[in-house]
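Training component of the fellowship. As part of building independent skills, the fellow (R.M.) carried out the full modelling exercise for a liganded target. The chosen ligand was phosphoenolpyruvate. The inputs are recorded below so that the supervisory panel can assess the work.
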Amino acid sequence: MNKALRKAVIAGNWKMNKTRPEAKALIEELKPLAANAGCDVVVCVPFTNLETALAATAGTNIGVGAQNCHFKESGAYTGEISAAMLKEMGVGYVIIGHSERRQYFAETNETVNLRTRAALDAGLTVILCVGEMLEDRENGITEELVALQTKVALKGVTREELSRIIIAYEPVWAIGTGKTATSAQANEVCGMIRKVIAKLYDQAAADGMTIQYGGSMNAKNAAELLAEPDVDGGLIGGASLKAPDFGAIIDAAGK
Ligand code: PEP
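Fellow's submitted model of the complex:
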């Protein structure tokens, strides 16, 4: 991390986990552990937990995010939630383009761009996920693929709006598998994404961009990953469901 240039952000992605009472209990346990965080802290919870999470985090340093939003403002889109609906509730963040949505829900680079645009228009901060599959890495196309995902996702995003974009580099082969990218691999791709931002915008924009690593980050490996100069935080799945583990990652990011 280079804290002189940019914010470190530790965000939890709870995925499809926790009932409302469980969500409240987890946040209550997390609050004292996050109270003195030396980084921004966010929990991205299921839609059904947003109201609970907002109430439980009121007056704290923990931000609340959703895990997806639709790109239309309203209309006949059964089962979907708009960015404006999230904003109206007081939600601050939304994950867009998570690999599980790309894999299981037909999310494409183009729909990621549309959702990113909609979230920005509604005033949300976007945690934009990019990352290669194992096959892409083995075929030597990680750089091209992640650059393409980044460029398409940011189509039509102004330089001013970049302050509300956090990029999460998440190699798909490392998500939920216990197989973490080495700190050198994480730093290499985060640094490459930064170069893409510099080309699309300018060097100052790239230097100021928070780029997280995500993929089996946990209490044990967080410090090493976060020590890398281009890794500005983490998007954490499994380990965000246990307050002590998530708290330890927050501590590692604060150092
Ligand atoms: C994620 O869901 O974004 C993630 C990184 O999951 P995990 O930490 O469980 O690999």
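The panel noted the following from the submitted structure. Residues 12 and 43 are 5 Å apart (CA to CA). Residues 13, 15, 170, 175-176, 214-217, 235-239 surround phosphoenolpyruvate (CB under 6 Å).
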